[in-house]
Amino acid sequence: MTRITLFADVILPLGVPNLYTYRVPMEWNELVKPGQRVIVQFGKNKLYTALIRRIHERAPGSYTAKYIDSLLDQEPVVLEPQFLLWEKLSTYYMCQPGDVLNAALPAGLKLSSETKLILNPSYTGDRSELNEREFIVAEALDVRNVLNIQEVSEILSLKIVQPVLKSMLEKGVVLVREEVREKYKPKMETYLLLAEALEAEEKLKEVFDKAEKKAPKQLEALIAFIKFSDRFASERKKVRKSDVVKASDAGAVNALLKKGVFLADEEEVGRIRHEDGKPLSEKPLNPAQQEAYEKLKTDFLTKDIGLIHGVTSSGKTEIYLKLMKEALDAGKQVLYLLPEIALTTQIITRLQNHFGGTISVYHSRFNENERVEVWKTILGQGPGHEKKGLAASLVLGARSAVFLPFTNLGLIIVDEEHDSSYKQYDPAPRYNARETAMFLASIHKAKVLLGSATPSVESTFNAQQGRYGFAELTERFGGMEMPLIQIVDIKEATKRKQMKSHFSPQLLEHIELSLANKEQVILFQNRRGFAPMMECTTCAWTPHCTQCDVSLTYHKQVNQLRCHYCGYSIKPPTACAACGETAMRTKGFGTEKIEDELSIFFPNAKLARMDLDTTRAKFAHRQIISDFEERNIDILVGTQMVTKGLDFDHVSLVGILNADSMLNFPDFRAFERSYQLMAQVSGRAGRKNKRGKVIIQSYNPEHPILQFVVQNNYQGMYISELHERQSFHYPPYHRLIQFTLRHKDQDIINAGSKHFADILKGHFGKRVLGPEFPAVARIRNEFHKNILLKFEREASMKKVKEILNAEIALFKNNPDFKSVKVVADVDPL
User: Fold this and answer.
1) pLDDT tens sequence across 793-819
2) Are 418 and 813 contacting, i.e. CB atoms less than 8 angstroms apart?
3) Which of 244, 258, 547, 701 lies 20 to 30 Å from 726 when distance is taken between CA atoms?
4) What is the per-residue burial (b if ≥16 Cβ within 10 Å, else e) of 297-318?
5) What is the rounded distance in angstroms from the CA atom of residue 505 to the CA atom of residue 488?
6) Cα separation of 160 and 38, whole Å?
């Protein structure tokens, strides 16, 4: 019997436009499937992990197909619906298939020649369980710390080493180098057990009697332990230490551990939660929620996308939960998208209490082993997958979760749908997770629910045009009042010399009042660092980044001047580089400076800061939020992170320190974003049983956007923005594609950008704006120039992109401009 020759078209993790065809060794004919990873040679010496897209019998006409070197998977790791999504994103966002692969696949599933490996510091297994090749690699890493794949190949005298490394990654022996930065430590939970000797009733009574006489706090801890452990159950039960501490006192619990009354048992808590406990009973919806829920259900009969606009603390999440439960009960998977990792901390507990069962969490702060674990669990290939029904049905994640291998998706919730964090800015694909969720839902024939207290102008417009279903919640849950918002004119206060540093007397007075009432305060400043710049008091010279056209930001805690674009840093100069004077001062203020000055005004207050600098560590978000919830923090200072939908019970005051910096930003969305940020952060105030207070400091208190915030008038902001957008041809009436051209030579970038803009103007006329330098014209030693294309919403996106792709290809073939990079950003934010 003649055996057929098969060929496989594969997606390479490179920015090349076409799939590449390889020949399948005949002995693998029955084994290969689309979605499996294979090792292939591309170019002279490079080996890459590629993905099989399709299998066929047609040899390529323009080149001789090389053989696939190695097959990594028995079963596909990427499914057909994912491939369809990737193709849609590649076309829509004008990027290459390999760009999407790189964004979608966890690094742990990609092994290329450049991959660096280190030993996993958390590996506790016995090396005697490793096979000979794995053991040799582990020993080599003991000596050399870091190895690339080429070096492993030489050590083992093997051409193809990826299968060996795949096995070591799965066993947790090694990590890919990207994880060195993470310094990953497993998430641990400490559990308490009663010492076995105290299980006898009379012995336990002795301990209780002694504690009652001499240590009442220890007695409280014992009572809390008994309550949580259900001691009279048939088995000894472990109790979370954190639960007992919360119900009693940390010192008392530690004292009982020292005495041997309690025994501690530390366990690793997986990101994928398998809870045996039953979920809490479902809360009934109030009349307003029920009406919104029924409206959405009716709209979903004829529409695939719905929008719920509910003011802060109106109970949108309860409606999400009800819709999610219905989808899960119908055997469907649910994806719950959040814009920030910080939000997952609170919502995980809420979902766990509501559903029990299995919840998978997926975002960029996970190390690669964890991301691969979640990926395989959703595929039904993860640890314990042989147990029926263990594949994840409820997934909570940030924007990258849209790439997970769903098989039966029924509902996608996009919470805080307006948030710019859903947009990927760099590298390609420059996708928006909100739009991607809609593409994903259409493939699975699922429903999408967008939710926000301040929806994007585009989403509200689509709802009002009848493209989306729409429901509204106009009042806070439980009859709570919206916060009282006061605008303070800091221009006037400065004239009267009433300002104390960056604080108005009204703000300081209300902070003092809140602290006196044992209430909490959130202060919002949309700039991190200590001060935006340092300057000479004599000649006004300012230290700048050597690689970017931007001044360096001063960070007091580490005593450094840093560039927030490229990471360049120096020690603050002791003298001016221009005139030699030693009188240098900081100008402006960031979150670090606010925190520093608050410690002077309120020395007894417990302060914390939540920004990019304080949340770099893996669990830093969770720790800050947990401390704030448990009232270990009195005043929380933060950037945009504190504006998101966090729910705190004891916040009575919110202060917005500099509203003008947002309003004056040079962007057509500046007013919309300013309203959203201020309305969202205001919503953190007075969420339970008491009306909150918000103080907004501004040099321009009469600004229309500030008045809309004070009046909680989203509709006023929306109508005002629509009028402006229609007049100046911006979304939602027009579509935008921005091109950024980059090169190290300013003359080349000027000539190249003008040439490219002229070509586009030949096709699109006055719809093309530019070229022009952005506010920061040079980043990482490359000059940037932007060209903006506006075209009517009714125009064919397909035809427009066909023209653009053809012209980009011609431009890149122009010998004068071959070295100029062209970056396309569809629907820029």
Assistant:
1) 999 999 999 999 999 999 999 999 999
2) no
3) 701
4) bebbeebbbbbbbbbbbbbbbb
5) 9
6) 11
